[in-house]
Structures are given as structure tokens and as C-alpha cells.
Amino acid sequence: MSVRDRQWHVCPYHFVTPRESMHQTISLLMLLPALMCSAATAGLPPLRHQVPMRHTAPDPRQDLYESARAYEKGDGVAQDYFQAARLYLAAAEQGYADAQSSLGFLYQSGQGVLQDFAEARRWYGKAAEQGNAIAQYNLGIFYLFGRGVQQDSAQAYAWFRKSAEQGDPDAQSKVAYALEHGAGVAPDLAEAAAWYRLAIAQGDRYARTNLAAMYLDGRGVAHDPVQAVALLREAVQQDHPRAQYLLAVCYERGLGLAKDEATALRLFEQAEQGGQQAATLRLVRLHLDGVGGPDRQRRARARLAQAEKEGDVRMLGQLGELYQGQRKPAQAEELLRRALALAGRSPGTGAGLEQALLGLLAESLADQQRFQAAQPYFERALALAEQDPETEPARRYARLIQLGQNLYNQSQYGGAETVYRKALQLAEQGAGLGDPEILDVLRGLSKVHESLEQLPEAQIILQRQLALLEKMKREHTSDMSSTLVQLASIHSLQGDFKRAEDLITQVLAIAEQRQGAQSKTVAIRLNDLAAVYQQQGRFDEAEALFKKAIAMWTTLDGQGGMVMAVLQTNLGGLYKDMGRYPEAQALCARALALRETLLDRDHVDLAYSLHELGAILARQDKLKQAQPYLERALALRERHLGAGHSQTAASAYELGSLYLAQANYRAAEPLLQRALAIRTNLMLATHPQLRQAREGLASLYAKTGRGDDAAALAACTDTCTLPAAGGAAQ
């Protein structure tokens, strides 16, 4: 999710959805169990017993089977597993599939016979070959876990599939899991979701939980926390501990419902009692934050102190990662620094653990907008990944992406491009990396080119992104929306406002349909559309949308942060264009104050508020007050964006106009000429900013006695040759 200032600059912070962060986030090795892990499979799960079937035609073998079942269950006779096994065997040897399956179960459980997995597998196999769905499922379990047979995921999947196609819900859930994770079969997330739905229709709690996890992660289905929560609530009603854990995470993080840490605490406690070990650490985190009362908080602090005393690097790292996930980067930073200090004193700490801690610490600093401070940690994490021969390509790739983003966030676009190109080369080489990784790095590269206004290069990469999204069947995802917004930005910069408006309107409709009328994404898209309206002079429409976006963001996220600074600057810039200078000045001053608390003094994004505030003061003839703001804005943009950027042109034009108003023609002329030259190179002939630049320079020529040059420039409607600088300018 990107936020844009009025001039369609991509805000350099990667405000990402869960989906967008998936390929860029590196968990602390195995510190935390994956949120979307499979249903617990420790040991051999319960196998299915044969359900008695009534056959339409008389069959003496059925009498043996039913007598055996009566002895097994103690139904009308004394329970006697030995007699049950004897009678099942008699029917099984005559080829009766139900008896063969039940006899296999007795051998598997050691009831009435000595436990013998090989013999159990043999009888399950005989029944499965005859199409017995329960035997097929149980045989799949044996192959999955290597009981009585060599472990073979492909064979397990084949037998699960046969059983699932006969409607067995447990088998349907296992088929879905195999397709989701590529266990014994090529992964197919869409088909996995379809099989989960079939199992859910028959009440399978594991399928409900696993499909909910897919909705939370946006894998194979649209990212939909609300749908995930609905499924998890049903599974919790079925006393599924993993569903309790995942629903607790939703309450803890406010995914698909209102954030409620007290309810999360209760659910984590239930999940922990059900064997979900991941819940234990989350309970410690909640207790540290005071949820559950002061007594629990004291015990949690004592536990953390004891872990640090014992050199438990992993626990501190785990907690740091949890705080990072809770968007509490300052708390995460403290814990991760302590973990790294412990790791430095522990000779047994592996390079992989140190690498993960460095990466997480860098992320916590970046999330606090401390990009320069984060830089050395990202670099060290990447260096460790590249030095360690055991580091997988996917991890090296992720480290490159993180470093590229951090360079981009510091407006070091050349460095970011170099790193992204290296990541793209790694992704294109394969080595376990595929289309999602290529999409990630293309997204980064397109933003670099867009920020540098290398428009042909940006359009080439964006078209490649679109083709890849279509190949991946993700036409209606947030990835597609982000790509379309970038294309709209380029069209707007060039002056093709109709195409830009159509694209933003399309993306806004998708956001409202998927996330409802009130969401952060909708607020940002309203801002984007308002910017297009403003550039067309549709000020009233733009004002309504800017104000709606600010109100929505305030409700959802408060009045602080970078996004609010962008929105306030944008509305202030609109009020400047409308001549409502006091309102414009107040908004841009607040935005500048916000940015100065969040950004380094040299950060290019300060230029947006500096530029607007200077321009507003200049419009009120407060030229001496305006001058330092505009000079600083121009210097930042020249240094970070280059001499040929449209934002450099904007600041050059405003500062040149200020000098013109001061009758400082010698200083004004080169700035106004630069602004016109840049805009001529970037924009369509009809772009209003290009016309504005011509009029400004023509005014200077007229005031310095160069009437012919002024007339020629005023009459120009296409590419024009500028008169030489100097002349009568004084």
C-alpha cells in the first residue's frame, strides 16, 4: 500500500499488507512456529475405524462381520477383542472389505492381536484395493508416517485422494493439506482451498482452521481476515486448539475484528492447555504488557530476567519478533539488542541465529523511520547470508530485498536499484525462487524508476508485473491494484489525467468491494483520486475526497504518522491552489512538524512540506519567510532526486517565481528555464504545469525588456527552443 503526495510521488515507506510482506519477512529461524502451520501431526493421528454397512443382497460374510463388531464394541455381548479379531479374520479371508479394514485397525491398535503395523498395512491394503474409503484413508496415514511401510508422501496422497473422491471428510482435508504444501503432489493452492471447502461442508474442524489460515495469509484465496475469523469461530466451537490459537492471534492483532487483548489472553490459555506451544510465548508478551493484571506482569518480568541470566537468546529474540509483529518496534528493538548482546557472549550462537536477530533489529529500526540506523544491520545480515554456504537462496534474496527497501526509504535510489538488480538476477536463476519473488523485486524496481521519473523503464517493468500477475491468476489482488496505481501515477505525471482517473477509480472500487467503505486502503485511494482531480482544476471534488481520506485515516489510525503528514500536505497544497492560504499554511506547518519528528533532517520527503509551506507564504507576499523553505526544498530534491526530476522542477519554478517577485531577475531566470526544460522533457504538451512554466518565464522576459522572446514563448504550444540566458536580466 503506497501513499502519494500531491505530485504523485511514491511515499518511500513500504506500508505493506500481510500479503505484501510475506516474501520479504524472515522469521527468527525456528524461533516461532509458523502462524499458518498445518494441523498438529506429532505422532500417528487417530485412524478411522470401519463403519458397518448394510448390503442389499444377503451375504454370509456380513454376519461374521457384524458378530465381530458386536464383540469389539460389547454390543449385546461381553466385549472380547480376541473373538472380534477371530471373526473379522474369517470374513476378511473371504475378501470382505469392511472386515479387512476393521482387522487392520485391530492390528494397528493391538486389540485382540499383537500390535503389528506391517500386518495392519497388509489388511488395509486389501480393503483399499477394493475401494473401501476408510481403509484408503488409513493406508494413506501409514504411508504418510512410515508405519508398517516405508514413508512415501506420494503414495499417501494417492490413497487420500481415492478416499476423498468417495466423500471422506478426513481424506478431503488431507488432500487439501498436501496440495497446499506440496506434500507428495505439486502444490496447487486454489485446488487445496476447494478440497478444504468440501471437508468443511461435512464439519471437519481441521479443514476450517487450515482454510482460515489461508484467508489470513492470502494464499490461494483473497486475503480476507473477516472470513478467516468466521471459520475459526466455528472450529473453536469444535474445541480445536489450533483454531483457538489462531483466533487469539486475530484478537491480539485486530485481524478481521476489533483488537481485544483480554479475549486473546483467554484463548491463548485454552490453546496452551490444548498443546499449542506457540501460545506460551504470546502469553508472556501479553503479561509483560500488563494484560491479566500486575501479578502476572511481575511473574513475566521475572521469567524474562531469568531467561536473560541463563543466556536464553532465543526467548529474547522470540519476544522481540512478537513485539515487531504487534507494531511495537521500540519494545522490539530493546529486546533484540539484548538478544544480540547475549549472542555475542555465547560462543555457541550460530550464524543463522545472529543473521536473523540482525535482520529483525534492522526491521524494528526501519519501522521507527530510523533508516540510517537500520542500514548497517541490514548490511551485516546480508553479509552473513552471503558468507554462509548453508544459507538458502530464498533467504539471501529476502536480505537483498530488505536492503533495497531501506536504501529506497533513504532516497538512495541508485543504490537501491543496484541491490534490486542483484535480487532479480538471483530470482531469475531459480534455485527455489519463483514468480512471487520475481514479482516482489519488480515492484521495488518499478518504484525506483518511478521515483527517478525514468518513465520508459518504469512502464516496461510495470507491464512485466501485469503479465506476471495475470500468469499467477492474481488479477483481483492488492498486488494488481498497486501496479495499476503506479501506472496511473505515470499517466498523471505526463498529463494524461483521463487514463489516470480511470485506473484510480477502478482500484478504489476494488478496495471498497474487498475491504468495505471504511479502510486504510480506501482512504489512500481517495487521496490518489483527489490528486488527479486537483491537477485537472476540479478543486471542489478534490477537497471533498482529501477531507474524507483524512477523516477516515484519523478514525482508523489517529492523527500521527507519515500517512497523516502526506494527507495534510496534500490538502494544504489544494488550499494553496484555491487561494485559501491561512488554512493551507496551518495544515502544511502541522505536516512539516510531523515529518521532522519522524525523518532524518536530510530526508527528501521533508521537501514536500517545505515546498508547500514556502509556496503558500510566497502567495501571501511573505517572500523573506518563504525563501529559506523553498531553497531548502530545492536543495533536498536536487541532491536526492536529481536535476531532471519533476519535483526539482516544481521547487525551481517556485523559487524562481519568488526571485522574480523580488525583481532578482538574474537569479530567477536560470531557475525558471530549468523548470520549463524539465517539464518539456517529461510532460505532454497540454499539461497545465508545462503551460505554467512557459507563462512564468515569459513574464520574466517581458519584465526585462525581451518582448519578442516573451511573445514567442507565450505563443508556443509544443517543444520550444529557449532563448539564451542573460541578456537584459538584471
TL;DR of this structure?
The chain has 730 residues and is mainly α.
Low-confidence stretches: 1-43, 725-730
Record field, number of beta strands: 0
What Rg is obtained from the alpha carbons, in whole angstroms?
33 Å
Mean of residue pLDDT?
A: 86
End-to-end C-alpha gap: 49 Å
Note the topology.
Blueprint: H1 18-21, H2 60-73, H3 81-93, H4 97-109, H5 117-129, H6 133-145, H7 153-165, H8 169-181, H9 189-201, H10 205-217, H11 225-237, H12 241-253, H13 261-273, H14 278-288, H15 294-309, H16 313-325, H17 329-345, H18 351-367, H19 371-387, H20 393-409, H21 413-428, H22 435-451, H23 455-471, H24 478-494, H25 497-515, H26 520-535, H27 539-557, H28 561-578, H29 581-598, H30 606-619, H31 623-641, H32 646-661, H33 665-682, H34 688-703, H35 707-715
Q: What would your notes on this structure say?
A:
The chain is an all-alpha fold. Helices cover 71% and strands 0% of the residues. Helix 12 packs antiparallel against helix 13 and helix 29 runs antiparallel to helix 30. The longest helix is centred in the last third of the chain and has 19 residues. The two termini are 49 Å apart. The N terminus and C terminus are likely disordered.
